[in-house]
Amino acid sequence: MNDETSMQSSETTPEADGFEEFEPSVLGGDEPAEDPADSEGETEPEAGVPDSYDLAAPEGLTLDPAAIALATPVFRELGLSNEQANRLMPVAGQFAQGLLDRHNRQMLGQVQADRKAWLDAAQADPEIGGRHWAATIGTAAKALDALGLVKGSPFRVLLDESGLGNHPEMIRAFQRVGQAIGEDGFERSSGIHHSKRDRAETLYPEDTPKGG
Fold first, then answer.
1. How many helices (H) and strands (E) does the chain have?
2. How confident is the prediction for the chain on average, in pLDDT?
3. What is the pLDDT of residues 172-193, one digit of tens each?
4. Are 110 and 116 in contact, with CB atoms under 8 Å apart?
């Protein structure tokens, strides 16, 4: 074997012997490989972008701290300065007011629909509605007056504003109270109910028949 042959065999590469060359290990290499995930989404904020924003609420509105906390990362991602973020406040206020107005209209519409549905049901009720309707309303009103709940009182205002004054069961309840007042003849005075016999004995004690 000559020297040339000996040199060629000593220079045989790992690939020639069926071995693959290994990449340096992460811990054994000179520098660990950079993880691409570590650099994704990490952008330095632009100049003028604050860590937190001092936002002024539009007139008539109050800023919700939770909403500001949600908006701050978005503002920073967009690279908005505090001044630029505040320029968006009137637009955001108009949007919020529009949502509130629409919600209020929907609520008002629902209340009006409920009032009409209750009134229709009461007028169609065989016990309190139909040909009995006028008498029912009169008897219920007298019951409210007798209980001290006159027109303009807080309770009567509540019945009117809430629409509960149209509810069949509310009307039925006070109609029955009115009937009871008419049948038993009691009236409300200083929180005590007096029957006709009680009043007679009080006013004319000597003329009241005994045991009758």
1. 9, 2
2. 75
3. 999 999 999 876 555 444 444 4
4. no
5-34 b/e (C-beta count within 10 Å ≥ 16 → b): eeeeeeeeeeeeeeeeeeeeeeeeeeeeee
User: Token pair of 98, please?
Assistant: 């529009």
User: Rounded to 5, what percent of the chain is helix, strand, coil?
Assistant: 55, 5, 40
Task: Please say whether the beta carbons of 111 and 150 come within 8 A.
Answer: no
Nearest to 49 by CA among 16, 78, 22: 78
Residues 6+ apart with CB under 8 A from 120: none
The one-letter amino acid at 117: A
pLDDT digits (tens, 9 = 90+) for 45-100: 555 788 888 888 877 778 888 888 888 888 888 898 899 888 888 888 788 788 88
Radius of gyration of the chain (CA): 44
Angle at 132 between CA 130 and CA 133, to 5 degrees: 70
Other residues' Cβ atoms within 10 Å of the Cβ of residue 114: 15
Tell how strand 192-194 and strand 187-189 pair up.
Answer: antiparallel
Across the chain, where does the E strand assignment appear? 187-189, 192-194
**pTM of this structure:** 0.49
Residues 51 and 80: their CA atoms lie apart, in Å, by 11
